[in-house]
Design brief:
The chain is α+β, with helices and mostly antiparallel strands. The chain is built from 15 helices and 34 strands. The strands form 7 sheets. It has an 8-stranded antiparallel beta sheet with strand order 11-10-16-7-8-15-12-13, with helices on one face. The protein has a 6-stranded mixed beta sheet with strand order 2-3-1-4-5-6, sandwiched between helices. Strands 22, 23, 24, 25, 26 and 27 form a 6-stranded antiparallel beta sheet that branches. Strand 18 and strand 19 form a beta hairpin. Helix 12 packs antiparallel against helix 15. The longest helix is centred in the C-terminal third of the chain and has 18 residues. It is globular and about 85 Å long. It starts with 5 loop residues before the first strand and ends with a helix. Bound molecules: guanosine-5'-triphosphate (GTP). Guanosine-5'-triphosphate binds next to helix 1. One of its GO terms (biological process) is positive regulation of translation. Belongs to the TRAFAC class translation factor GTPase superfamily. Classic translation factor GTPase family. LepA subfamily. Belongs to the GTP-binding elongation factor family. LepA subfamily. Keywords: Cell membrane, Elongation factor, GTP-binding, Hydrolase, Membrane, Nucleotide-binding, Protein biosynthesis. One of its GO terms (cellular component) is plasma membrane. It holds the Pfam family EFG_C.
């Protein structure tokens, strides 16, 4: 295809502002799907995405559009994942485009996440076309939103397209704006092949499918290609595009977006941002911007029923086939038995995987407290030199005497919130050891910038933020490196024995409050036994909080076993069932629910 007839664009939108609906509408208008096939949203193809209404994996479609000038164009819509956890993937999708539609809800206005993505888009030199969506809503205020786009983002919004993706208003204007405002790609057909790996996923029939954007050169079936970062070579066995149905093509040339398959079995070999080149005539340099993605939040996943361990192993392995960004290794816990220590890109990523395991694979799971990656500087000992280690699991914390210092990851967060909720949000950030960097007001809303330790955010920061602001606050963050902190490991002791699954790393200033909270929770969650059970939170040998579960009185049990035969049998059955769900810990039985509930902060 001629470069001048190609347009590559993405859609930037805050969650729920109508990205998927608009994408579907564009597909429909350009003839990709019939009315009947449109009945379900096409781009969000995973159930969980549909239910939670968020886009997780990027999908891309090629649209054929004959413009009002009579010319036929190919429009490649690159879908981008809509969450901060997937910021790197977003950056690669954006790098594959020349422009973007900025979709803003006419009733909600500009939100923090929109801002973050728009700035990224501007960094990629994109031409941005503002679209004000949902103008059919009675609460729509298109003029106010236009002013916001100009004041807050600094983009001219005079000729923003007013649209309703739901009722089909403004769709033709959007297509024309894509053709006339977004520049065509540049590229050299005669140069050595250079293509960017934008995304990949596992397909049971095709193997690993790789989404690419060709920069220079041509890619064809039968060609030997090389992944410059991974260092591997493959033979291309299929080249094509999604319209959105899969279609095989003879080749992909410069500026084009499409997919290839190359008999690759494992997604781990395909790294987002890698450069694909020709083996015989390789490009001189790889594309800039490649990054190795690293999990930042870790937690243990254990089966509630120990007999499910193998099933958990299989299910996790299967999930990993389609998501190379999450990691797992076997872990054993005295409290929870065998399970896996898993790493995720962020909390939402963690929740998605946990939910898929529960739902798609029908597993009952216990999740231990999420932890970030700490950097520990260790003193030298008689036999070992001083060294720096990364700690993913509080249970692996070395002897405190060995530790010179601990560093924790920090983030810079942007919070965007209506004025009236500002007070409580400032307090929340302050309570979480935040450092305020900036506070500005635009159009009756406050834009806050805070530096925060990531470990204060992974617990329940987002939930708290949402509940304090009744859902109006939006939140976005990126990591800004490690900083030294006064961090300690807090153990929870039940009947004088430490329960490993409940231990966590906390800032010394927060330890007492967290410890007290945890002890109070456990006191309510652990059933009474025939003896008194102390519950303690301790740092090293020092107890910082304590609760006691009183002993059960003998006559209470006696009463339980009285009564008629059926009732007795029923009780026994119930007890047996209850037993299965208990973890014997020393001489104390802790119900499964207690772990889950105790770990839920707030
Ligand atoms: P993510 O996939 O989470 O990023 O959300 P999204 O931005 O793709 O939003 P989606 O298209 O799923 O739309 C969110 C909700 O807004 C849905 O209930 C849509 O039906 C609704 N919606 C989308 N466009 C319009 C519109 O033009 N008018 C009205 N009234 N509702 C719309």
């Amino acid at each position: 295809t001629e470069l001048s007839k190609i347009r590559n664009f993405s859609i930037i939108a805050h969650i729920d502002h109508g990205k998927s609906t608009l994408a579907d509408r564009l597909i429909q208008r350009t003839g990709g799907l019939s009315e009947r096939e449109m009945s379900s949203q096409v781009l969000d193809n995973m159930d969980i995405e549909k239910e939670r209404g968020i886009t997780i994996k990027a999908q891309t479609v090629r649209l054929d559009y004959t413009a009002k000038d009579g010319q036929a164009y190919i429009l490649n819509l690159m879908d981008t994942p809509g969450h901060v956890d997937f910021a790197y993937e977003v950056s690669r999708s954006l790098a594959a485009c020349e422009g973007a539609l900025l979709v803003v809800d006419a009733a909600q206005g500009v939100e923090a996440q929109t801002l973050a993505n728009v700035y990224q888009s501007i960094e990629h030199d994109h031409e941005i076309v503002p679209v004000i969506n949902k103008i059919d809503l009675p609460a729509a205020e298109p003029d106010k939103v236009k002013a916001e786009i100009e004041d807050i983002i600094g983009l001219p919004a005079d000729d923003a397209v007013l649209a309703s993706a739901k009722s089909g208003i403004g769709i033709d204007e959007i297509l024309e704006a894509i053709v006339h405002k977004i520049p065509p790609p540049k590229g050299d057909r005669d140069a050595p092949l250079k293509a960017m790996l934008v995304d990949s996923w596992y397909d049971p029939y095709l193997g690993v499918v790789i989404l690419i954007r060709v920069i220079d050169g041509v890619i064809k079936k039968g060609q030997s290609i090389k992944f410059m970062q991974a260092g591997t070579q493959h033979l291309v066995d299929r080249v094509g595009a999604f319209r959105p149905k899969i279609e095989t093509l003879p080749e992909l040339g410069p500026g084009e977006v499409g997919f290839i398959t190359a008999q690759i079995k494992e997604i781990a070999q395909t790294r987002v941002g890698d450069t694909i080149t020709d083996v015989k005539r390789p490009a001189a340099e790889a594309l800039a911007g490649f990054k190795e993605v690293q999990p930042v939040v870790f937690c243990g996943l254990f089966p509630v029923d120990a007999a499910d361990f193998e099933k958990l192993r299989e299910s996790i392995s299967k999930l990993r086939l389609n998501d190379a960004s999450f990691s797992f290794e076997m872990e054993s816990s005295a409290a929870l038995g065998f399970g896996f220590r898993c790493g995720f890109l962020g909390l939402l990523h963690l929740e998605i995987i946990q939910e898929r395991l529960t739902r798609e694979y029908d597993l009952d799971l216990i999740t231990t407290a999420p932890s970030v990656v700490y950097r520990l500087h260790l003193r030298h000992t008689k036999d070992e030199a001083a060294k720096t280690i990364e700690l993913h699991n509080p249970a692996d914390m070395p002897d405190p005497n060995r530790i010179e210092s601990i560093e924790e990851p920090w983030i810079e967060a942007t919070i965007y919130v209506p004025d009236e909720y500002l007070g409580p949000i400032l307090k929340l950030c302050q309570d979480r050891r935040g450092i305020q960097k900036n506070l500005t007001y635009v159009a009756g809303r406050a834009q806050l910038t805070y530096e925060l330790p990531l470990n204060e955010v992974v617990f329940d920061f987002y939930d708290r933020l949402k509940s304090i602001s009744r859902g109006y606050a939006s939140f976005d963050y990126h990591q800004i490196g490690h900083r030294e902190g006064d961090l300690v490991k807090m153990n929870i002791l039940v009947n004088a024995e430490a329960v490993d699954a409940l231990s966590m790393i906390v800032h010394r200033s927060q330890a007492e409050a967290r410890g007290r909270h945890m002890c109070e929770r456990l006191k309510d969650l652990i059933p009474r036994h025939l003896f008194k059970i102390p519950i303690q939170a301790a740092i090293g040998g020092k107890v910082i909080a304590r609760e006691t579960i009183a002993a059960l009185r003998k006559d209470v049990t006696a009463k339980c076993y009285g009564g008629d035969a059926t009732r007795k049998r029923k009780l026994l059955e119930k007890q047996k069932e209850g037993k299965k769900r208990m973890r014997e810990y020393g001489s104390v039985s802790i119900p499964q629910e207690a772990f889950i509930a105790a770990l839920r902060m707030g």
